[in-house]
């Protein structure tokens, strides 16, 4: 095996078809960037799901004197019995992990603590009693959310049950949609990239048909004849993958960081996950190009 | 060395067989002319020896190997034992004489030291000493064919196939080419040469196999080209 010979043939091939090579690299880079972006969003979504699944709670607000809900208007503020009954009911449910009662005074204090620093006007405007007393219900599994909510909403003395779940679901749905859109576009792009590579390698094989014809006649092995073409594809795929990695890293530190900041989540896709996505993208690029080159050669380079 | 046993080859687009039940034996060290009009099956014979085509019927043995049983990945090794020369030289225009000959060894992975040693020897054998640095474009047709012969012979094949090697060369120069082929034959290499050149065949007085419409119509030791053409 003479590495220098193979490498120089590869280099000649890449240079001769420079425009096609550039087209291949660009297409591969874009498609892999979209693919990697899709993977990153996927990672981010599952991380955030985990984060929220352990924290998601149901808040059951009780009626007080100023509750606008119809049931509360009719029956007035919740009684001590209603509270005890509801607490018993919640604690008796198998889907419920833990129930915590928060009086109106505690709820107001908690509100002040959480909102006071960021939105002083709102905190000052709120008075004790504006937030009704409530039960914080921790679920064993967030998927039971609806069951528990249906069981307690409408119970005597209950004003409303918070539904932060649905807000989160909308958000996750949006991210899921983004992910799938990115992956579908990536798929189409990858198909286009494969066709381009096929065409490039075909041109390359055609422009070197003299050399390959002689190689065949003097008994060069098929591998030796094909290797420069395969390397040509692999190198284009690798460069495309490297450029895509740049895009992927940029996505991580701009788009995803923004999302985190916006929602004040403390869940970042960590460096090892980022490296894994980059690795997968580059390997995919190299494999795609090499395999396409190989299949093209089987058709256009008679052995 | 080359053994055809009742070989028939039909190309898919043609009705008439290119070779029709041909049996030919060529021994080691022989010099054989393959003559006959265009389309008589000479090129098909050469392509079958190289396993570029497969026979539809019959068996082909080359250098002791049954080609039907030779797997595709071993075909390159068969071709290393066969040198090929063509009418159109098939040199690489961007490589000089030395590089063109060396190319045949480079692509089968021979070490550089070996190449530096044997290429000048072969270049000298074909009568091109002192011209190793020339580009093909700077050489005459006869000289280019000598380069092609050097490339075919540099790996010391057991068989040299020549498909009308003098077809593009004037008669005076052709004699020189034939001398080179004769010299190669004297080293023990079997030479099979397809040709239309009556004068050359007549002057060499070697074995002549005449094909016509895919059939062997004459096989003569020390033969001549024939009267009909």
Automatic annotation (TrEMBL), chain B:
Localization annotation: Cell membrane
SUPFAM superfamilies, sorted: P-loop containing nucleoside triphosphate hydrolases
Domain ABC transporter: start-end pairs: 2-228
Keyword field contains Cell division: yes
Keyword Endoplasmic reticulum assigned: no
Sorted UniProt keywords: ATP-binding, Cell cycle, Cell division, Cell membrane, Membrane, Nucleotide-binding
Topology of this chain in the membrane: Peripheral membrane protein
Matching PROSITE patterns: ABC_TRANSPORTER_1, ABC_TRANSPORTER_2
Xref: Gene3D superfamilies: P-loop containing nucleotide triphosphate hydrolases
InterPro entries: AAA+_ATPase (IPR003593), ABC_transporter-like_ATP-bd (IPR003439), ABC_transporter-like_CS (IPR017871), ABC_transpr_LolD-like (IPR015854), Cell_div_FtsE (IPR005286), P-loop_NTPase (IPR027417)
GO BP, one annotated term: cell division
GO CC annotation, single: plasma membrane
Record-linked PANTHER family: CELL DIVISION ATP-BINDING PROTEIN FTSE, IMPORT ATP-BINDING PROTEIN
Function summary: Part of the ABC transporter FtsEX involved in cellular division. Has ATPase activity.
Sequence similarity: Belongs to the ABC transporter superfamily.
Oligomer status and interactors: Homodimer. Forms a membrane-associated complex with FtsX.
Protein name, UniProt field: Cell division ATP-binding protein FtsE
Lineage start: Bacteria, Bacillati, Actinomycetota, Actinomycetes, Streptosporangiales
Designated gene of the protein: ftsE
């Amino acid at each position: 095996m003479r590495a220098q010979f193979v490498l120089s043939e590869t280099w000649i091939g890449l240079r001769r078809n420079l425009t096609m090579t550039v087209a291949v690299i660009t297409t591969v880079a874009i498609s892999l960037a979209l693919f990697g972006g899709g993977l990153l969003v996927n990672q981010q979504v599952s991380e955030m799901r985990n984060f929220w699944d352990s924290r998601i709670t149901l808040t059951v607000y009780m009626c007080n004197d100023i509750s606008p809900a119809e049931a509360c208007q009719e029956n007035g503020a919740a009684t001590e019995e209603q509270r005890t009954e509801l607490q018993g009911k919640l604690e008796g449910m198998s889907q419920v992990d833990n129930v915590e009662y928060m009086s109106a005074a505690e709820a107001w204090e908690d509100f002040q603590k959480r909102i006071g620093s960021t939105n002083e006007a709102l905190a000052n405007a709120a008075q004790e009693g504006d937030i009704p007393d409530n039960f914080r219900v921790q679920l064993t599994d967030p998927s039971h959310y609806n069951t528990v909510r249906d069981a307690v909403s409408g119970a005597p003395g209950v004003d409303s049950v918070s539904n932060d779940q649905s807000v989160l679901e909308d958000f996750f749905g949006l991210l899921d949609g983004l992910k799938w859109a990115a992956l579908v576009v990536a798929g189409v792009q990858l198909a286009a990239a494969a066709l381009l590579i096929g065409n490039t390698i075909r041109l390359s094989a055609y422009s070197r048909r003299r050399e390959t014809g002689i190689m065949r006649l003097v008994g060069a092995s098929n591998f030796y004849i094909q290797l420069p073409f395969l390397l040509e594809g692999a190198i284009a795929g690798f460069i495309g993958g490297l450029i895509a990695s740049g895009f992927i890293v940029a996505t991580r530190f701009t788009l995803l960081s923004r999302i985190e900041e916006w929602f004040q989540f403390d869940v970042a896709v960590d460096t090892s996950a980022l490296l894994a996505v980059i690795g997968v993208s580059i390997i995919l690029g190299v494999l795609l190009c090499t395999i396409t080159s190989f299949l093209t050669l089987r058709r256009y380079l008679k052995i | 060395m080359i053994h055809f046993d009742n070989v028939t080859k039909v190309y898919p687009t043609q009705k008439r067989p290119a070779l029709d039940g041909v049996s030919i034996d060529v021994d080691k060290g022989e010099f054989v002319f393959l003559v006959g009009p265009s389309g008589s099956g000479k090129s098909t014979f050469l392509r079958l020896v190289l396993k570029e085509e497969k026979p539809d019927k019959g068996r082909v043995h080359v250098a002791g190997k049954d080609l039907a049983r030779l797997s595709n990945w071993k075909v390159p090794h068969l071709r290393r034992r066969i040198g090929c020369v063509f009418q159109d030289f098939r040199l690489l225009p961007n490589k000089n004489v030395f590089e063109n000959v060396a190319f045949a060894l480079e692509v089968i992975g021979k070490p550089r030291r070996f190449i530096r040693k044997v290429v000048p020897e072969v270049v000298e054998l074909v009568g091109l000493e002192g011209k190793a640095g020339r580009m093909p474009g700077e050489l005459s047709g006869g000289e280019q064919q000598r380069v092609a012969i050097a490339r075919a012979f540099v790996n010391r094949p057991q068989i040299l196939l020549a498909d009308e090697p003098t077809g593009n060369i004037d008669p005076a120069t052709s004699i020189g080419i034939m001398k080179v082929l004769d010299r190669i034959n004297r080293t023990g290499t079997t030479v099979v040469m397809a040709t239309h050149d009556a004068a050359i065949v007549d002057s060499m007085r070697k074995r002549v196999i005449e094909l016509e419409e895919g059939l062997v119509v004459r096989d003569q030791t020390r033969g001549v080209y024939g009267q009909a053409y």
